[in-house]
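1st attempt posting a full record on here, be nice pls
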Amino acid sequence: MPKSHILARLGAPAADLDGLRGEIDRIDDAILALMERRLATAHAVAAVKRDRGGQWLNLRPDREAAVLDRLAERAEAMPEASLRAIWRELIGFNLQAQRRMDVVIHAAARPTLVASASRERFGGAAPIIVADSPEEALERALTREAVAVIELSPLSTWWIALAELPGLVVFEALRDADGVIVALAVGRIAPESLLPRERYLILAEETLSRRAAAGEAIRAIAMCGRLRLCLLDPEAAR
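the predicted structure (as tokens):
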């Protein structure tokens, strides 16, 4: 459907400049009211979560992805990339309003790129802390209200420590503009809240070869000795 027809169906007013500006002001007021209503609801959600307690972060990657996918499906005139960026920021602010969560970054080679990707993923309200080492970032993620975002290259080895830190999981990859993984987000995420479309596993080289040969959509994204950090993407096999 042409964009002009979409806007007409959405109720765009006649092309009078002062009238259009007044309509934009009214729409802005309505958007602000809804955002503040969403924030108040987020505070209520936080109160329920506090009553339940638990060891997990106040972060649900599966829920966030579902919200973004649903809105992207419903959008007609708004570009998907803009929609996702706006709602990422809104979701991030609401999460920080519920409970502060630090984003602890370690990126020796590409700090600016990783910091920018972290801002895009977790929102501008998220406090950014720079760690001197991957070990420091992981320690903060394990013991504090924080996620670790650690730079990744094919020869990175920091991920081996995750085998001895059962409370932490890789829950998402941060990518550059070309879709290449530049860092991994690690945190105390409840198993049921992980993204169903991507999982990260540490496997022996032989096990990876066997599973790939059996048709699983799995590949190595880093290696150390005979161990491989693998990305399992079930949707890629469909």
